[in-house]
Every structure is written in C-alpha cells, then in structure tokens.
Amino acid sequence: MIDRQKLPLTSFHWGTYRVEAREGQVSALHPFEEDPDPSPIGQGYLGLLNGPDRITAPMVRKSWLNGSPSKTGEKRSKEDFVELSWDEVNILVAKELRRVIDTHGNESIFAGSYGWASAGRFHHAQGHLKRFLNIMGGFTKSVNTYSLAAGEVILPHVLGSAEFIYGATSWQSIISDCNLMVAFGGLPIKNAAIAQGGVGVHRTGSALLEAKTAGVEFINISPLKSDIPEALQANWLAPRPSTDTALMIGLAYVLLNEDLVDFTFLDRYTVGFDKFAAYLTGETDGIPKTADWAASICELSAETICNLARRMAKGRTMISVAWSLTRQDHGEQPFWLGAVLAAMLGQIGLPGGGIGFGYGATNTVGLERAFPRVQALPQGHNKVKTFIPVARITDLLENPGGSFDYNGKAHAYPDTRLIWWAGGNPFHHHQDLNRLRRAWARPETVIVNDWCWNSLAQHADIVLPCTTPLERNDITLSPRDPYLVIMDKVVEPAGQARDDYSIFRGIAHHLGIEDKYTEGRSAEEWVIWLYDASRQSAARANVELPPFNELCAKGWHKLDVPKTPHIMLEDFRADPKAHRLRTPSGKIEIFSERIAGFGYSDCKGHPIWMEPIEWLGKARKRQLHLISNQPKNKLHSQLDNGSLSQNDRFAGYEIALLNPLDANAQGIDHHDIIRVFNSRGACLCAAFLSEDIRNGVIQISTGAWLDIKDDTDLCRQGNPNVLCIDKGTSKLGQGPIAHSCLVEIEPVRKEHTYFNAG
C-alpha cells in the first residue's frame, strides 16, 4: 500500500496533487490531502506526457527553413516541420532575432505570452520571455487580460484601482453578515476551480454552502441556470444576454423613484450622482429609465425588476458582477453600474455588503489575502514604449502604422515582423479566428515555446519544446492563496524538451547575453532566491515562513490568514479623507470628468445603456445569441487533448446546449450533430437540449483546439471563437466582446462533406 502523503507534490492552476510515477511515467495524480473539494481537471494530464501530441524536439517549418521568412507566412499550419538539434535551432533563433532587431527595431517584436503556462513561481514562461527580450532592448507588449480587460480599465476611474477586482470582501464576512447575494452573471463554480497562481484548497463551493446554511439568499441573473450551484436554491432570472446594463439601470431608477437611496452615503463618498440621476429620470434625453423601460430591453417583467430593487434595499446585499459581463460590447458598463448600485444602497464598506467583482471567477476571489508581497523573477526594463490592448492582436497584424484609441490616448500599431509566444494560445483566446488566421500570415517569423502540438504550435515557424510542471522543480508562491507548495520533478522530460529557462539560456549564449540572463544562477538557485526574497518580505509584514530546507522536507506550508474578515473599502468608509481613493476626486466617481473629457461616443462620463453590436433585440429570425463560456474540464484550451475533455464530448464533438423550443423550431433533436455559423465562420457541435438555458440562447464552452482544414472557415472540433466578433468593448477599454454574438444553426446531414470530425 502506497503512503500517499509521502508522494511528491506538484501544483497546477486547478489544484495541488500527490504524484505517483512508475517506470518513468506518471501513473496517478492524487488530490492534495488538505483539499476537500479537488478539481478533476488534473486527471487530464495522464497519458499526455509521452502521447502523440507531445513535442519532443526543436522543429522548424520546412519552407521557412529553406526560403525567405517574409514569403512563407501563408503556409503556416499547412506544411511539415523539420527536426533540428538544440545547437542548430539556438543559432538559428539568435540569428533571426538579431536580424529583425537590426533591420526593423525592437518594436517590431511582439511578445504575445499569456500568464497561464505554469503555476510555478520560477518556471513562468511569460516572465522568462520578457526578461530575455528586455535584455535585448525590449519588445511590443500587450496590456490587460482577455478575462476582463474592460473591467481592468474602468475600475481605476471609478474606484481608483483595478486591485479591487481581486480584493473582494471575504467569504467569512458574507457568511456572517450578508442577507442577499445578487449575482449578475451567476457564480459559476466550474470557473472557481482555477486560480492564477495555483490552488492549494478549493474554497468557493464550501463557502457558498456555508453562506446558504447561514441564511444568505441568492439571485442568479444569467441565461444559464447552471451558473450557480443547484444546492443554493437560487432564484433564477434570465434576461436577454448583454442586457445586464439595462437591468441595472432599471433597478437604479426604482431605488431612486421609491426613495430607497442612501443619499447620506452618496454625499460623503461619491461624486456625480446628480448627473446620473438626470439620466435615470429622463431629464437629459427625455426617456425615463423605468422598470417598464428596462423590462422591454431585458425581457424580464417590470414587477420582477421592482421587487428585486426593493429586496436589495431591504437588507445587507452583496452585488456580485461576473468577469464575463465585461466580455460584451460596452463591457465597461456592468462593472461601473455594479459600483453605482452598491453606492446607492449605501452598503459599500459594510460587512457582507457592497460590491464584489468575480465571485466564482477564480478560487482566490473571496479568500483572505495571505502574502503581503511575493517576489517575481526580475524582468528588467522594456525600452520599447509601444503596446496594444491584449485583444487587438489581429488589428496589430493587419494595420501596421494604423491608429487606435485606448483609455484617453491615441496610439499607433507598430510594424510587427516577429512574434514570440511562450504561454497561452491566441487561437483559443482570440475572437474571429478565421480573420486572425489570415492576419497571422503577415509576420516574417513566429516562434512558439510549447509542450504539445496545439493550434498555436501548428501555426508557428519555429517550435521550441518545453517541459511540463511534472518535469521540473519549482515552487508556488501566490499573493492570494495561503498554501506554499514545493513542486517536485517526478519524471524526466520527454525527448529533448527543456524548461523555458534552459531554452532562453541556450539562445542567450549565442547572443552573448547569457550572464545577464542567468545572473550566474541555476534554475534551482533561482527558486531558492525567489523564496528567500519572499520570506524576507513576509517577515517585514510580521508573517513568518519556514526556512527553505524545512519547507522542502514537508513539501508544503499553510500561511496564517487574518482572523478579522476582509471588507472591501472598509477603511475608505471609516475615514474617506484619510483613505482617499486614487480617483481625481478621492471618492467613488459615479460621473467621471476624466472619462467625459475623452469625448468617446461609446463610453460617456457616467454609465448608460447602449445597444450591443449584436444582440437578440435586433436578431433576425432563427438567429440565436451565443454564450461562449469557460469550460469545466480544462483551463482555457489546456488539456483539451486529455481524457477528461475528450470524454465529455459526444461522438467526438463539442457540446452545444440549446433550449428545446429553439431546437424544435429548427428540427433538431437531442444528440444531433449541428453546424453553428454566421458570416465569420462555422463550427460543428453535438446538440444537447435542456430547459436550464434561456430560449434564444446557445451555449458552447471555449477551449476546443482549432481544427480548420482545406481552406474552409469551419472548425470541426467546435471552437466557438471562430464565430465571435473581433471588436473592442469601447475606445476606453478595448476589451474583447465574445459574448455579443449572434449565430444560426442547422442540422448536419451525413452526406455533407464536413460531417466527419475526425
């Protein structure tokens, strides 16, 4: 009998596991003994480390190797690769990097890394790529995230900092003091299985059940009933998708009209309510934003809206706004309005009440903060000042020298000649993937660090095979999770795979910058350095951590978390002068003079309702609204090739959830294979019928690896991002708007050439 607690540990973004290995292969992943609610996602790793999708040697696309880099981009994903040795590929990459910099300058390099490659503190692909390129003079970067870019930009204007996204009132306070939790976008427990810096113990599910037991009522405002755990017995309200803004405005009108507003709070802690009130009453545009007005947009009854507003004012209410609501046209507005509603109720800064962003979005939202500061790998200084909002990659490639607006300033797109991606997958994250595929042909060179042949690696010129967390030593150090975990190497790397540190070190050697990159440290020495620096930082905040050797001996350590519940903006409420917000006024800005001064037609000085570019309010007959949410069986597209993800498909097809009313109208039965399409593309899915989705809506989770062949626009694996429009939320935030998307569906007949997904 194996003593599981003596097995080595590793940690992923979806949980911590004890790892069992036999004959050099990972044979089992056992959930961490501290975790009462482990995620099954990790099981998807089994069988992949040495599977057919593994990249085991440096590879270079054939015509790129044999011809001119500037003339072969259209062949990406369409031809074979040639295997090279590490010495050969290191010399090749160093030479190409130097050529591009000398010819076109550093701003012609786009480092498109995204931060989900590893939960380990040292082997963080994004950090290594940025450190390496900064030593070379810098690169064009991206800012914000696909998860909630619009929210990250709007909150500093309204509350003074984007940190409030992660600084939500703790579950402890909600359990003890909250009466009602109104969840705009739901509380999807599947999303809370993950976290940016690793997960020690999954807390969200148990916290919600404790809150229910304590008497908290829940309102689920979402087109999906499953966006909140069934055990919470939530009241399900299903407005039209992309109309949460109108619903919030209607609620605000009822609060104002029925004298349910805390004007004392507004006077002391906010600015600009008078301008917003004039909009509510119709003084500015002649249209009172009554419950009837909101009802006509949302397709909820006016009575429902009025009753919800009254219930919110009756007791201690926590307003939760899901990150997903920022991923729609004008996605800045729901975050802004959530804060406005909480301010009108006067509950910001009170125990169990106020506003929270992203409860249920990750495991860390609602946790007590453990670390005051965690040391990251120093990345140096980027001398290049050009950047793009993260979701504007296609615009960057299509429009060199073109202009774009972002957060009050005008910028220009550089002329991108080389893309280097290490971590993340734009052929998952991005929208209108057929448009991206066409634009992707323009750069002269695309370099990718990855461990498997996903859609990004297939669209590269040079592929550098990297290790998985199970093939290297590392440590988790997260500012938001109380568990520190020693991540032990349990098997040898597959083939010639190297960790990212070794990859960049090898290239740096041929560029004469190896010493600058490594600072004379091995990977193991860097891990110790990062821990010691974090330990010293913790000590300055009176947080004691064990010496590194003691941590290694046990394998993990749990930090003590504050016994007093964290309450967001509690200090500000107690003394708004001593704890001024970092807004121009020092207060919550219901009206922002700064935003108004930008003169944007798509983001005014206070929150307003604007019709999305695509929504059911102007849908043609047979069009449905697509919800492309996060998957339950993988992290984004990671492990889509694993057993957990593949077993959740039907006959090899990704699942599309439909209301029976919509399916019957189209002659579609349960388990039918359907084509989902619009002018941007199409994908194949298996229809699953359920009354737990609003009529007029279809849901397809993201994460399927892009599979388009023969110059078609059809993804046979069911990637919904071939359908989603590629447009910014507004000139302010420029975030993605995947959730503002209309599609049509049709049953697939066996005689169709695209029927076989294999």
Short key terms for the protein model shown above:
Rossmann fold, six-stranded mixed beta barrel, Dimethylsulfoxide Reductase, domain 2, six-stranded mixed β-sheet
SS-derived structural category = alpha/beta
Main beta sheet: strand number and arrangement? 6 strands, mixed
Let me know the average pLDDT. 95
User: What would you call the quaternary organization?
Assistant: single chain
Gross morphology is globular
Give the low-pLDDT segments.
none
The total of beta strands comes to 30
CATH topology of the largest domain: Rossmann fold
Continuous helix count: 24
Structure description:
The protein has 758 residues and is of the alpha/beta class. The chain folds into four domains: 4-45, no CATH class; 59-145 and 373-558, Rossmann fold (3-Layer(aba) Sandwich); 168-368, Dimethylsulfoxide Reductase, domain 2 (3-Layer(aba) Sandwich); 616-747, Barwin-like endoglucanases (Beta Barrel), CATH 2.40.40.20. It is built from 24 helices and 30 strands. It has a six-stranded mixed beta sheet with strand order 5-4-19-18-17-6. It has a six-stranded mixed β-barrel with strand order 24-28-25-27-26-30. Strands 10-9-8-12-13 form a five-stranded parallel beta sheet, covered by helices on one side. A hairpin with a 2-residue loop joins strand 2 and strand 3. Helix 5 (171-177) packs parallel to helix 6 (204-213), helix 7 crosses helix 11 (302-314) and helix 10 packs across helix 11 (302-314).
